Amino acid sequence: MLQTIKAVAVAGVFGLFGAATAQAVEVRAGVLRVDYPAMLPISRFDLRPDDLGLAGALLADEDNSTTGRFLGHTYETVTQVAAPEGASDALAAMLADGVRLVVLAADGPDTVALADQAAAAGALVLNAGARDNALRDEACRANMLHISPSNNMSADAVAQFAMWKKWPRWVLIEGSNPADQELAASYRRAAAKFGAKIVEERVFEDTGGSRRTDSGHVLVQRQLPTFMQGLDKHDVVMAADGTDYFAAYLPYHLWDPRPVMGSAGLRPVSFHAGNETWGATQFQNRFEALTGRYSQEVDYQVWLALRVIGEAVTRTASNDPATLRDYMLGDEFELAAFKGQKVTFRNWNGQMRQPILLYDSRITVSVSPQDGFLHQVSPLDTLGLDRPESRCTAFD
Amino acid sequence: MKSLLTSTALILLTASGAMAGKAFVSNERGNTVTVIDTDSWTVETEFAAGNRPRGITLSPDGSLLYVCASDDDTVRVFNSETYEELYTLPSGPDPELFTMHPSGNPLYIANEDDNLVTVTDTESHTILAEIPVGVEPEGMAISPDSAFVVNTSETTNMAHFISTADYEIKHNILVDQRPRYVEYTRDGKRLFVSSEIGGTVSVIDIAEDGTPTLSKKIGFEVAGVLPEWLQPVGVRVTDDGSRIFVALGPANRVAVIDGESLEVVDYILVGQRVWQMAFTPDQKYLLTTNGNSNDITVIDVAKEKAIQSIQVGQQPWGVVVTPN
């Protein structure tokens, strides 16, 4: 049956070219994922599939090509996975191959370095991985747009929900790694921004090798409550664990019974496989039919990055990176992304404006921005760095 | 209590006779169809209609009720008097919305999951054609002269003009994000395409030779409602073309647009997440499905006022009213 449909589709293509007045445009994009050595995740649900992110590219190519065939536009996306030390060479090979539209899923420092390498070749980079705030701020780059939300956006999304609930007294539990510390800084900033009070902070030291397996929960059950003992009166526990080594254990192992938010409990995500509002069921169905697994955030972000490219190509009939970038950052750009409202870009730092889903690992509990948080440009700009505080000058 | 209600409803049905107008409402989450008497505006009954019923229509004589049972990958056909399921029609996967040829045959169905429009013969119960369209096909309409079927694709953001003669796409018009619904004026010279996420209704004019041109986009503005929630979905045009009604989804309002100036003249407050709409045959009333408040709103068309709401099943989606 599938075979037949494909054949019909191809016949359709040739039928259409005759009638179409559009000009042929070939769009070649690249997706580069950089894999870092990491410990096993706490939950095996979080094991990294081999095709993480790349699967999103596959789906985006199908979606873009379906649209493209009505306009004479073709899409081809090459994908590559590299170790950190091989990332630069992998990008160089893509650029040498003529790719000028690059989607990256790497850490913050590598994303900046690769964006600079791409800039030298006149290529546009879409960041579908790194959430570092600096990339949207002082380390921003004119050729780098951000699809993934920043840590600040994610923390603001959680903070708004806590404030909407009238839970303003927080305890902040942070990890000791740099990624945990950056996340903790985002929660501190969010507390100040929305009027929450952090009554106490504690650092849960990463002593290495703390993954609890087998009967590990026995120790967790005895150790964590004492760690959480004697805190000032609080409404919520905010967890800042960017390296996934302790936060997952917090719920149910506190001293005082309180909800956990942030890196465990109620988590801010760009997307999740249980989401089916705003037509997302169609995305999930297409993704699962294509890959045989559930979608993850990086899959969605890579898909969205390539859909941004596809939308810009559709509207401009161009594959020129500069033309596409101008369109993406312009007033005309808008894109439906299964989040209930259009996504657009902040033209002063290249960050995509988007709602953030608050997820309990099963359902969408809420979506931020919350009702009542207003902004002169868009309620979405209540999430993350705002223009007046931005040190980004690359877009001036 | 429930059986009592049903028997009361049956008596009412017998008493009011076959000529009474009925509205059928598909309840997406309740997996049912609610039947409403359009004289008394009361619920007559509710019957099971398969999994995730969405698109709903009637045969030209009103005797057959067609329901897209999206999660069953089929169109279910019911007797509109007895509510007995008669048979199913092959629809292709995930049928969402459809439009019927004025003769009652064939049915043109949007397959949201498969980027296809399926043409189904309502008499032989066979598929006549599968037409590849854009990503997530949804809105469907047939031109009054039956020459074209128009389909909108939600992720491709196009209106595809499919010739009913050879099933080839003759024209594609790009519109704003997530086009949901298409509605022709009665003279066939113009059509309206709602874009849910774009927040606009595109006005497409049809030239003498049939060529469509995008001539205007209508935007919406309601004091106190964030622009993001003004999401046009269902569209209905009066037979005389003087008024265009647009359901604005989570804004809980129906916009009233003047057919001449194409300016919005009013917003009518209705139930929550207003989705699809249908006129009564005399066009005195317009019914809206309100997905989140589980009711329908009855609008007095001449007065442009909501006059009544009627509780229906869970998450009402589509509505159709029996012809005269």
TrEMBL record, chain A:
Secretion signal span: 1-24
Matches recorded under SUPFAM superfamilies: Periplasmic binding protein-like I
Domain Leucine-binding protein: residue ranges: 68-205
Entry protein name: ABC transporter substrate binding protein (PQQ-dependent alcohol dehydrogenase system)
Protein family according to the UniProt entry: Belongs to the leucine-binding protein family.
Biological processes annotated in GO: amino acid transport
Gene3D superfamilies found in the cross-reference section: 3.40.50.2300
The keyword Isomerase belongs to this UniProt entry's keyword annotation: no
Keywords, in A-Z order: Amino-acid transport, Signal, Transport
Organism superkingdom: Bacteria
Entry annotated with the keyword Acyltransferase: no
Automatic annotation (TrEMBL), chain B:
Protein name per Swiss-Prot or TrEMBL: PQQ-dependent catabolism-associated beta-propeller protein
Source organism superkingdom: Bacteria
Signal peptide boundaries: 1-20
Species per Swiss-Prot/TrEMBL record: Donghicola tyrosinivorans
Ranges of residues in domain YNCE-like beta-propeller: 14-320
Keywords, sorted A to Z: Signal
UniProt entry tagged with the keyword Magnesium: no
Record bears the keyword Signal: yes
